[in-house]
Structures
1.
Amino acid sequence: MPKYDILAIGGGTAGLVTAAGAAGLGARAALVEAHRLGGECLWTGCVPSKALLAAARAAHDARRAAALGVDVTGVTPHAERIFDWIRDAQRRIEPHDSPERFRGLGVDVIEGTARFHSAHEVEVDGRRVEARHIVIATGTRPAVPPIPGLADVPVLTNENLFTLDRIPGRLLVLGAGVVGLEMAQAFARLGSSVEVIEATGHVLPREEPELVERLTTVLVAEGVSFSLDTRIDRARREGENIVLGSGDREFRGDALLVATGRTANVEALELERAGVGLRDGNVAVDARLRTAVPHIWGAGDVIGGLRFTHVADHEARTVLRNALFPLASRVRYDVVPWVIFTDPELAHVGLTEREARERHGDDVRVWTRPFDDVDRAIADGQAEGMVKLITTASGRLLGGHVLGHGAGSLIAEVALAMRHGLGAKAIATTIHAYPTYPEAIKQAAESWYRSRLTGVTKSLVRWLVRR
Ligand SMILES: Cc1cc2nc3c(=O)[nH]c(=O)nc-3n(C[C@H](O)[C@H](O)[C@H](O)COP(=O)(O)OP(=O)(O)OC[C@H]3O[C@@H](n4cnc5c(N)ncnc54)[C@H](O)[C@@H]3O)c2cc1C
């Protein structure tokens, strides 16, 4: 009999949730981690990036305080102390993901790099581990594009960015995706001059274009430059400078952040020994997160799709249900919220307007509420942004998009409503406290509600009032 019921490979969010969940349900669980428990989110992703953004926001808020009548002088970001702040945040969160905690929960934590020996056995540094179910949760690493000369220049990625000991003077950012934009704003606020270079013509291509346009306007006003439709074809080092070339244009910086996408960590696993296949470089799974081998599963960034911590968590829970219980549970990707943690934040759930029109045609209705119509946002001096709700004519919510202060928190209400089939009416008829930001969501939903007041309803009301 195999020693374990479940073996998770990879100690990031997906592996940790799998192993802790399995042990909590009474299964014999093991977790293999090659480097450090906590994975990308704790060490090189969410936590350090949000701590860096918090330091950058502090500098920005101090500078803009004058607009609210408060003069703050001498705003000086200290690189060493900012990076200490980041490490401190990680140190405080680390115990949640520590090997001791997981051993205490009943998980066997095995340190080392896993590779398949067979479909039921994994080898970790020469030791064989057998399990009934194996969950591949090995995450991703930065994909660095094959640009001639790039291998000879010092490149920053999310893996080494947070161990810097200085704020770059001139930062080049390759890629206008989520990581590129968050870090561009953070370093611009900390004093770097920042140039974002993007091969396509789009910033954040998955997001609502009008909200992206408002966001890029804010970033440009804060000093971030954008070069779109610019495919870098060469790189070289010139003394302290990094030079990137695109045709006859050249960009110079003293640091280069590459944020051009991710590659799944699959090579070390020797998947062919187990019969597990790949799709577009990611571990191929079906809607129940099962690979081609019935007892081998995939969860988290390694399976591609929406690469977020909360999605990795949700997928791990789905794998647990499917592996341990006679249930067939699928992940619903249609109501997944996500947030770009720029300031203002940009939050997204469900369909964009374009996607909604492709699927629902003329039945689509769009309701917006700019933040400069929201009392709390005006009073706080945070009036940049907009809520955009997408519904059917009958008020079914198809998507929600918020650019604005606290958008990441605001989107939860829309996600809750969508997940549980509550329409715009439920939001519009719920009392929201005044003055708060969620009123922006309510006011957008109320626009739908008012649209239901047809001529017939209005005539009826007139008749009732005057009778
Ligand atoms: C800069 C940045 C900021 C981000 N910010 C956010 C955010 O704000 N919110 C959000 O939701 N998401 C954010 N993300 C994405 C988030 O970090 C990932 O979605 C999440 O960490 C994925 O978890 P995972 O468990 O799938 O993989 P990972 O966390 O990558 O874990 C995989 C683990 O597997 C280990 N491993 C790999 N191969 C082997 C092997 N052969 N044997 C043993 N162990 C192995 C690795 O060492 C690693 O610890 C951010 C990402 C980046 C890069």
2.
Amino acid sequence: MSCHCGGRAIIPAEEYSLATMSIPQSVDSVSADARTLQRQAHKLIPGGAHTYAKGDDQYPLSAPPFIARGKGCHVWDVDGNEFIEYGMGLRAVALGHAYPKVIEAVARELSNGSNFTRPSPLEVHAAETFLSCVSGAEMVKFAKNGSDVTTAAVKLARAYTGRNKVAICADQPFFSVDDWFIGSTAMPAGIPKEIRDLTVRFRYNDAASLEKLFDAHPNEIACVMLEAEASVPPRAGFLKEVRALCDRFGALLIIEEMITGFRWDVGGAQRVYDIVPDLSTFGKAIANGFALAALAGKREVMRRGGLDHTHERVFLLSTTHGAETHSLAAGIATMQVYQEEPVIETLHRQGDRLKQGVEEVARRHGIQDFFQILGRSCNLVFATRGLDGIPSQAYRTLFLQEMIARGVLGPSFVVSYSHSNDDIDRTIDAADGALAIYARALEDGVLEYLVDRSVKPVFRPFN
Ligand SMILES: Cc1ncc(COP(=O)(O)O)c(C=O)c1O
């Protein structure tokens, strides 16, 4: 069955993912059992996974549909195939899978119980540890999801300033699953226009575009939210200009450190770029894959969520599982590893090794203008371009497909503390083989080499 929308025939979502799974067993590296489980996933779970970024539409069909276990930077799929992994839990597992110091800390807490009617002392210990890392912050509140803390930051900024609008950086792909952010994406279904209109966007490295927003919405913008750096470094002075604009126009500056936190530096990108935000938001690497996120900031602002002020109360963050003990224990242990061991230095060093090796391979194949590595060494992504120089999902699919065939599973080249020289060098060898095929595809046409359909961006209005 197909439906029609805007004149195009569209396969409904559940049929899309099931239909595209029909590759012949003769060319299928995935077992029949794993395919059955994959079909089952689509019957039971919208999208077949609980996170869009892990979904089938993000990977070639030859990708392992399920990962059964991981150790360090290696993972094994349900068929027992081993891969070197990059990205690792959407950048959360920055130390490595099943990292001993973290799982030992978690195991110690499991037998003490996970959730009580009053706070656990771990809440205070985790706050102390966090604030000893992030020096610009004076208070912190923990939650389970990054989206919850970015949304809490927005709510707090609105309450503190008495304004409704939120200015976000248009060049950064994700801040929250909540309406204030998703309403600004290419997938805003279900979000009323009134809410969408409250989020306005400026360009990265373009302070003038932010100033224009302040001028266009006088006394309406409660906060400015951006990552200090994503795939492009800040132009000299840009972040200070943003800080100054916020001060001039009376908005709070929220530095979003979900990715940069505990990756750029133990103190986040705010320390690297010497910028003190009013609020900042952390998650992902903070607890090496256990569910922990943090809203941090100046006491003057954060205390509005507390018990010792006379302003109207702000329902800041309060969740049943917010202070579940084993995630706090994981967070404390992870942050201590960062403080005691050369984690940051290693992430940068191994990223540099990988970038240099893969760029050299791309040059050798003469395709350095079509396959490029972008971003800071601790957080590398790749750009895949077709002959026309435009970013291409088909070439991305081809590259992923060829890397997977060579034992590397990576939607990015984001390294962990567990990536050894040998892992990096094996990845460079895999890239050599994959980019040789990429070079041939540029000559013969990518469809000659793709086993099946292309991957697609998460944010698209229709399947
Ligand atoms: C920059 C950034 N902010 C916020 C989030 C949301 O975090 P979570 O998925 O934990 O809700 C993400 C998730 O990918 C992210 O990349």
3.
Amino acid sequence: MAQAAQLPIISHYTAYKPRPFTREERDTTTILYGGLTWKHERLMQGALHNLKYNAEPLPNIAREDLDAGKELIDVGACCPTIFTTGSLVNFLKKEVKEHGKDEVNRKFVYLTAGACGPCRFGQYHESYAMALDGLGLRDFRLFLLAQDELDQGPGNGGGLDINMPMSLGLIWSILCGDLVTDLEYLTRPYEVNPGQTELVLRECVEQMYDVFLHRPDHGKKLRTLAWHLLSNYFTSALRDVRKKWDQIEVDHLRVKAKVKITGEFWLQTHEGEGNYNIKRWLEQEDSEVVPPPVAVWLHYLLHPTIRKLEHRNSASKHPKAETLALHALERVYRGTYNRFRKALANLPHELPDQEELRRLAEPFYHFELRGGEGHMLIGKALHSYHHKTAHMICELSPYSCMPNTMSIGSMANVIGKYPDLLYAPIEVKGDAEVHALSRCQMILTEAKKRAQAEFEGVMEKTGLSVERIRKYEAKHPELRKATYFVPHRGCAGTAANYVMHLAYDRGLARA
Ligand code: SF4
């Protein structure tokens, strides 16, 4: 009898599935995380330490992370995926070298945000899994934190309990991280004593770390939600930050080009080599940077659900009740952010109205085109243009990012309609710094000219002189404090708004 032909052995693809992380392992295991600024990450660490987790942010992204990521993940991945994967890879390589694979698999887990949708953010974990395969660390555990559920419960072994205290602690630490970052960028370009902002900032972040570390326990459900929303625990801590900020002396008469940063979520938030340190570079080039708060992104995430309900595309049995609940949630969210801003003398910027962003972007980019920041890139640029909150927009676009490529295409249409909108789309690949910065500089030169012309225009209009303002400041030292609120008086630049404010709100033009 003829022998049956041997069938080839097929090895099917199996998706990465982490080993359980048990409750008993919690004390000996460190949760790794990253992707935001050092300020956000330190405050998040406070929130996690408060819940008795060992938690460590990964070191800030470095240029070598790009190479490490490129070696191990798919060709054509977007640059944030490459950088963040490379950062985890380099950290693990170092640990493996020192302690061996088994110890690394035992000692660490990685926690990252998860999502689904058309951009690669929904597949970051696949890239991480691919890199772990490449490193021979298939047993290393990584877990996803869904962005749309506050109470996901103890999953996969119970070592990680993603419950209300954890989610609220992380969200509140992100909001506070945003607010101190905003203060930092509003102040540093005007500081009289170089380095003072940085020193006070570090002190404030440590103080806020302690605040998160000692956050009182109010149970795991609604009582903790109510406490986070109603307590003055965080606002009084932010008032202490404000007192510390008072020590910084500033000179608001310095004429700076105001540059609003927009772009892909990770790239615009990051501070470091992942985006060529562009925010620091812009400050060195005599600009004031308007950084993008993570809070805007969290706010944006609420809206697709609201839209679905409004357009009856939702499977909900009670769409009206759910719409009302979501609108109430949105009001509470903005209200909380504003309460925190108030504790900081209203210095940090307000969150933009998501409805307005959608309306502004609508003729150019449909709000249902999801992925990346969606229509927000267009909406934010036009918001800043119409409200005169910056002289130029610097959009950080990752190499190989589909959603950003679409928004840059739509921006060509926007510029056709608003030719005086100064817009610098900067493609970031991680290894083409000179090209990117010189491109930004071309637009920045024009922005600086506008800032100077605007300042000269208000000096002429108000009839004030620098000498006169200096004399007035000498009599009113509060004007030189970093906590002095300079209201928006219709100009993009801080110096021009300051002069308008002195002239008309404080009556200096009539004196
Ligand atoms: S928005 Fe672009 S850069 Fe960001 S994860 Fe998605 S594809 Fe990558």
4.
Amino acid sequence: MIKSIFDSYGTPILIGLFAILFLLETKFRLRERVQSRWKRIFINFIVSIPAFALLRVLFIPSMVWLAAQNQQWKFGLNHLLDLHPWLILVITFVLLDYSNYIWHIMLHKIPLLWRFHVVHHTDLDLDITTAFRFHFGEMIGSILFRGVAIILIGASPLMVLIYEIAFEAASQFHHSNIKMPFRLEKALNYLIVTPRMHGIHHSIIKKETDSNYSIIFSFWDRIHKTVRLNVHQNEIVTGVPQYANERELTIGNLLKMPFTKIHEWKDSERTFDENVNQMKQ
Ligand SMILES: [Zn+2]
């Protein structure tokens, strides 16, 4: 099933999407760059290789295996509800996304997990290649958490694969540096996470990073009041304040970063506007 769904459909879709978004962000840039684009492409792709390998050989097979086992155990919400199969598919998709919203908050709030997630946030620019800049340790942690979520929800192997493809596509989209027509983005943002919304999550201001945790659907942040849209994109400085020295952010340092002493977040000031729900250009 992994071969027929993920490899035959998912991978070409994700590669095609990458090519389109890459070209769009080249032509319509949202935020100014502070680093050389090609150097970042190189660093982010090398850092992503172990994480990608783990995704394909360990993460996806173990999630699908667990979901298949659970079809026999019949554990989880979907096995308790006697609903139409289509409705079950929708509920599963939405709840898998909710579990990833919670996981993303845990990555920020639990010091052991932040050690790994910080590697992703040290990127000094934000674009589609940031979507690949994850430490492989984060991938291992997510196997445990997402495995539990799959069991509790009672997700089927097919839904696990469909959600995974959608998750990767959404991550490419919201990390991209594409300047979309403002009204179109505002309309899309009522339902899904968009580049401006996620750009605020990568700010060096703590209050801004501590917002916009959603992955696909943006309403999790609205429901939990963790949404913040009132920041102009050209006011955002991307990164983590204590890791702002470009020369220290080498491939070697990024890979060993979780095993070193993690610097505390020292904030700079910004006056906050009250209306957090008002998206700004
Ligand atoms: Zn984050």
